[in-house]
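Field log, afternoon session.

UNIT: design team B
ACTIVITY: writing a sequence onto a fixed backbone
BACKBONE:
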């Protein structure tokens, strides 16, 4: 990751990216069927929660 210039910066970015990706991922079990509208609702709730966390920083 030459773009970052420092390997530690790239490491922090990748870790944060992975954590956000996991946070936004649907949490349903494989056996559970969740409608697309419900998935979208859950996604929007998580995005809003993430926005609140970033604003608190």
């Amino acid at each position: 990751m030459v773009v970052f210039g420092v390997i530690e910066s790239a490491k922090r970015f990748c870790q944060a990216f992975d954590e956000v990706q996991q946070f936004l991922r649907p949490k349903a079990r494989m056996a559970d069927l969740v409608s697309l509208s419900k998935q979208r609702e859950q996604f929007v709730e998580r995005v809003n929660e993430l926005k609140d966390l970033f604003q608190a920083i």
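LOG NOTE: The CA atoms of residues 24 and 46 lie 6 Å apart.
NEXT ACTIVITY: expression trials, pending approval
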